[in-house]
Amino acid sequence: VKLVAFDLDGTLLNTDHQLSAVTLGKLRELHALGVPLAFATGRSGPAVYEHVAALRLEGGPLPCVCYNGGVCFEFPQPCADGADARDRKTILFASPIPLDDAAAVVAYAAAEGLLVQYYVGDDIFVSPRSDAHLDLVRRYGELTGATHAHVDAYPSDLEPAKMLLMTDDPDAVLAKVLAAQASGALPAALTPIRGSPPFFVELLRGDVCKGNGLKRLCELRGIDAADAVAFGDGENDVEFVSFAGVGIAMKNGRDAVKAVADRVTSSTNGEDGVARAL
Fold first, then answer.
1. For residues 47 and 251, which has the higher predicted lDDT (pLDDT)?
2. What domain of life does the UniProt record list for this protein's source (predicted)?
3. DSSP annotation string for 42-96
């Protein structure tokens, strides 16, 4: 095994969205054995950094495939003197949504009364129009630790790494998005994904997914797919788990990811399922 990559929410993190002491110990043990680690998540860089910092690994930087493959950051480990490594990250690769496609999503969301989260670099732009929108922003911030930039209009000159349509009925919104793509109301080149946790639908550039993100990371590191292990739980982990030589789905995972996995953990993310499987 030359790389072990982990989804975060619903997989590596427990039900409180934290790394448990058991999981931290197992990851540090792997690192001490010389096994490279990586995160792969739909989260932004700032929203993943707290878990990079919690690891406190000795040695080189930790790669994080963020935005479901839209950007891959590499975070240096926090310095011994406590200096924050968050702003010293580098970008290994990026595949943003084209501006015309982003504008079409913003227009569609406005017509449907949906809130958009618009991701550029470390910023998440939102333009809430109702109390329900504000509640969705609050809940997302509480879940991920992310902060939002409130704007009157989305930045039409900045390509987003990804976009979220915030909703408490993601299955219905996903069905409408797919229908809109079929009718031409939304760009067919975009990939829509039901969010995990389930209060949004995510939109990515058509060739972007965690699986391609892991593939590009392996290529940069000179690692064969057969030598990679991937853990995931959500529909956005299907290609990710499929690509790895050993793909492992969580017991609490969606049926779609279990169907393509080589193995399924015997425990959930709330029961240190990844640590037990490792």
1. 251
2. Eukaryota
3. SS-HHHHHHHHHHH--SSS-EEEEEGGGTEEEEEPPPPTT----GGG-EEEEE-P
